[in-house]
Write a structure and sequence with these properties.
Rossmann fold; elongated; Serine Threonine Protein Phosphatase 5, Tetratricopeptide repeat; mainly alpha; about 5% strand; 3 domains; single chain
Amino acid sequence: MKTRPTIFISGVSHEFGSFRDAVENEIEMKGCFAENQPGFRPDYSTVEELLRRRLHDSDAVIHIVGFRFGAEPNQRPANAPRRSYTQMEFDIARELQKPVYVFLSADATVRQPPNPDEQPEDDDAIALQRAHRDAVQKTNHLYYFFKDQVDLCKLVTEIPPVQAASFLELLLGEVAGAVQDAEQSMAHAVRSGDAFERIFDLTVLATALHQAGRRKEAEARFQEAEQMQADRQPTYPLLYSLQGFLYCDFLLTEAERAAWKRFVVPPLGGQGSPSIPEPCKCMTTNEALAANCRAVSERAAQTLKWEEGMLSAPFLDIALSHLTLSRAALYEALLEFSDIQNSESEIDAAVSALRIAGQQQYFPLALLTRAWLRSLTSDRIGPESAQSDLDEAWEIAERGSMKLYMADIHLYRARLFFFYGQQYPWQSPQDDLAAAEKLINDCGYHRRDGELVDAKQAILGQSSQ
């Protein structure tokens, strides 16, 4: 997996050349690589081969559709339909099963100023382009209408691969740099006056502060973002989509740590499953945290209802809502010693939707939650087990150099399998805890400081210094 997504930008040059350049600049500022439509030689087979190679190497396609047919290759085979370069890009992207995000101009006046030598297109080309506009709206690809270049750039920043790129710096372990970059993005958003950009960048900043362990500052930023969301869309007053998932992740932090403390205790009688202790004297705190889990579940259920009611809502949004519901149900069950069945059904929905969404940078989150659940409900070792989930998560994280995930996986290994002794599936719990500690310190991933202390005390008998 590449650490930054490559997005291919498609659109008729003499109609949208300057629009493509603006989109390229926008998505590169958000952390993506842009593959702007290249110039072509006229030969049909050469063009098709070049497009296939470039689209194969891309992770998603932005397809800008106006009312101009545009240029087309020469030497078209007799059995090939007449298609412009831009239409061929769409066809090949669909054939390669790439995520395609279609942006349609509101009317024929939405374009760059025509060149003095621009010629009218023939009737057949005009009809073919109108047919293409109709056809793209009948596919299963997301499509949006834009009224000008500024509107197009704003819409582009909201598609999942561009939003996801904003968080890759964090996943790569550059937490301090992510905080600094998020602060700079916030300053730019304030100057721009764009409400959505401010909400999104506030959420990015809050998330970076959260991972850095600066909880109070993160909370203030999340609350500010949600207030802006309520002002911007009164009918949707909660943060939703990726922003909502990140806020829920923050809200569940204390419950997550308490749930691990309930789960990771020395086993009774040596090897075997971890024992679950009787309710302790801190039950009031656990009841409060369980109530917080229920509140987060209600929040996620509401935003999921909104997302499912939206036209062509991204699978990523739906997947992340199910993941939040699964996590909240799991933590609540561990804190109250109750049934975890709800968590199982939600994690299955999350994993399925994430596979459809094709957003691998979020997949380890679901695999880690499912590993914890499987350690309680099914096989721990072997295929379709907690171990296989952790191994798959590690493969994704290591391939993408996602150091925060790698730290989490080391912690999960130690906490879920420490009681296996000589049968421990990896080197040892001690090695995993040491590796987690090094990554946490090197990356400034201080959100996990408390969990690391708890794990070392429970597994190694080491008290915090």
